[in-house]
Amino acid sequence: MTDPILSVRDLSIAYRTGRKESVTAVSGVDLDLYEGQSLALVGESGCGKTTLGLGLLRLLPGLGEITSGSLTYRLKDGSRADLLKMKKEQLRRFRWSEAAMVFQGAMNAFNPVIRIVDHFADTLRDHSDGKRWTKAAVEARAGELLETVRLDPDRVLQSYPHELSGGMKQRALIALAIALDPQVLVLDEPTTALDLLTQRSIVQQLHELRKKFGFTMVFITHDLGLAAELADRVATMYAGRVIETGSARDIFYGPRHPYTAGLINAVMPVKGERPVLESIPGYPPSLKAMPDGCAFNPRCAFATDECKRDRVNLELLTDRPLAMHHSVACLHHDRVRLQRTAPEQLASVAESENANA
Ligand code: SF4
């Protein structure tokens, strides 16, 4: 593999909570993403995964700000650019043509008083670099993209968002996000609030689109089953930090952080015996009162005094190429084991990885 398409170094993001106060929602994140990879950011609500996803495109809401670090992209022309140093005009051209986002909640992501075709017109005209988009060109491009996601342009283009079902809106949002052929696509909870059948067809659609367009994907999810279906790599987040990262097989078959293992142990198998599930005791810490040392220590069965002293950093567990490494931030990772083999829905990708190996 060549250089990463996206390198995140020591990225921290805070939200202002008062005139001179703020809370850190993402702290010291390092990530590398290579061309064509699909990375799942997983963790409980409030762990910082959506904030990190928004930060990757500098799309944080008003009170959020990136307080340190760098976000370096390899652009389509092969040059490298730090997103944090881009001026407003550069950012406008970067977004949607180099990296795009599918926001959480298909129901609310469209402006309700604008027809679908006009959402395409706005995106194509605002984010293209100098190309003139006539009405006919917009309709042709939008129609082509809608057909790609198996929507009927005649039915959808002139519709208002409320005239589409949740699944149709999600497909239209994905079509809109890839309108300018971005290299990186960030999706926030792409199947949440959709019924099971629609979830299945969106997952299938994403597989097909990746194959066809070859984009690199980051998706944010609390659903480990979805991560297993779509991800080559998984990064677990806890209290604003990445605490484990590895291939889907590393994470679902051999997690080395007690929190990742706890998340997997809490997944009910879809077939066979229904085991008694063990939940992770306690709650994630408040961002305003983080424990000293490893933030997971109040909930961790393996915690020792050492865990309560210093921040625990990610440590490489493998000597594979960096694109495929397994890393963990745990002082006692050699003691961590799953209670049982991964449930079937988590084993699917790991098995297909085996088949492809
Ligand atoms: S560093 Fe210590 S407290 Fe943190 S997860 Fe590992 S064993 Fe548990």
UniProtKB/TrEMBL annotation:
Pfam families in the record: ABC_tran (PF00005), oligo_HPY (PF08352)
InterPro entries: AAA+_ATPase, ABC_Ni/Peptide_Import, ABC_transporter-like_ATP-bd, ABC_transporter-like_CS, Oligopep_ABC_C, P-loop_NTPase
Xref: PROSITE patterns: ABC_TRANSPORTER_1 (PS00211), ABC_TRANSPORTER_2 (PS50893)
Keyword Translocase assigned: yes
UniProt-listed Gene3D superfamilies: P-loop containing nucleotide triphosphate hydrolases (3.40.50.300)
Protein topology in the membrane: Peripheral membrane protein
GO annotation terms (biological process): peptide transport
Domain (ABC transporter): residue spans on this chain: 8-264
Domain of life, per lineage: Bacteria
UniProt keywords, alphabetically: ATP-binding, Cell inner membrane, Cell membrane, Membrane, Nucleotide-binding, Translocase, Transport
NCBIfam families in UniProt: oligo_HPY (TIGR01727)
Name used for this protein in its record: Peptide/nickel transport system ATP-binding protein
Organism whose genome encodes this protein: Glycomyces harbinensis
